[in-house]
Amino acid sequence: MIVRRFAIRSRRGAYVALVVLTLIWGFNWVAMKFAMQHADPVAFNIQRILVAIAVLFALMVWQRKSLAPNSWIAIIVTGFFQTTINFGSTTMAVASGGVGRASVLVFTMPFWTLLLAWPVLGERVRGSQWIAVLLALGGLTLVVEPWNWHDALTPKLWAVLSGFGWAAGTIATKYFQREKPLDMLNFIGWQMVVGVLPFFLLPFIRDTPPVDWSPVYVAMLAYTGAIATASGFVLWIAVLRWLPAGTAAFNMLAIPAIALVSSMIIFDERLNATEWSGIAFIAAGLAIISLLAWMRARRGEGDSPQTPVIESG
Q: What is the C-alpha separation between 309 and 286, in angstroms, rounded?
């Protein structure tokens, strides 16, 4: 059992694990920025995904799980959105822009999830959810500032695309789980395998400088690939065995906050008044969605489509 591997044996232990996981995922954004000071974004993205794949498949072998894929259609579709689009766009956003700004824009994922769940899953946006969506769209507009072409617009658009890909991957996972239960460890491992393949074509169409295999880069690669991506996902599943998904989803509020504060301290990242206003709107929307998810969990209405399958980026 994954829970036993991570020694979570009580609800209190699950809360402690959730705090640790939130810190790991929050600082992962800073780690990615440090890593890409030593490697091209494409090379770094490929390498950290390969590290995560190695860890996940090693864990499956250790637990004597079947290595056969659950469903190729589900793996290909989800791998495209969750790994190719989400991971690839996150990397480009962080490499070319601010860490904190990118994390906030990527974490618009729950709002895209609500909108995508309507046509795909038939789960209509209702009541207070519309307030959250409107707050998010207003905040997104203020942060991206599409009217301001003097600032770097491309990194912001990469971050928005990442959030959309993350949401689409989450909805796809929920959709395919309706047909048959998926072993999530196996499923995530294989969708990373499929999703990383398109990145191998990029060095043939763009110049990719050699990687500086310094101790800092190796450490950041291990952190982002083995700890934040692979082990973080396994720990998340272990936490969900003890805590309702709605309760655990509150960690989404803290992750971009940690990334934003860290980037301001470490990289001296600064945001203007308009961007701060947008972040406030997005945070308010996230708070509403997280509260609604928590209330559903308390009423025993099960998981919500907003719950991420794996941490972004």
A: 17
Splitting the chain (313 residues) into consecutive groups of 10 residues, what average pLDDT does each group show? 55 83 92 95 95 95 90 94 94 90 87 86 81 86 75 85 91 86 90 95 85 96 94 83 66 82 90 87 83 70 49 58
pTM of the model: 0.86
Residue 76 and residue 288: Cα distance in Å, rounded? Answer: 33
